[in-house]
């Protein structure tokens, strides 16, 4: 899961929220794209018992729109 309580409103408005954390995982920590999105969605949803809400499939929309 990603930690989101360390972001202040200015950072969220100018850098993004979960999307900024995903970019950081990919760019600074060399996490593969599919793993970064899984950490941000499915793993967190599964932890909270929301398995049916967090499936992301690469073919569901172009990656450029993410």
Low-confidence stretches: none
* Largest beta-sheet characterization: none
**Any idea what the radius of gyration is?**
12 Å
The H/E string reads: HHHH
Individual helix count: 4
Q: What count of domains describes the coordinates?
A: 1
Number of strands: 0
Distance between the ends: 19 Å
| pLDDT averaged residue by residue | 80
Which shape, going by the Cα principal axes? flat
Helix content: 40-55%
- Beta-strand residue percentage: under 5%
Secondary structure category: mainly alpha
What's the topology here?
Elements: H1 9-15, H2 18-29, H3 33-40, H4 42-47
Describe this structure in words.
By secondary structure, the protein is mainly alpha-helical. The protein has one domain (9-65). 50% of the residues lie in helices and 0% in strands. It has helices spanning 9-15, 18-29, 33-40, 42-47. Helix 2 packs antiparallel against helix 3 (33-40). The model has no long low-confidence stretch (mean pLDDT 80). Keywords: Hydrolase. It is an enzyme of class 3 (hydrolase).
């Amino acid at each position: 899961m990603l930690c989101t309580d360390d972001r202040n409103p200015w950072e969220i408005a100018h850098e993004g929220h979960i999307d900024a954390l995903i970019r950081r995982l990919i760019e600074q920590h060399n996490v593969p794209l599919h793993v970064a999105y899984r950490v941000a969605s499915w793993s967190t949803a599964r932890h909270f018992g929301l398995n049916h809400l967090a499936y992301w499939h690469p073919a569901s929309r172009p990656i450029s729109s993410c």
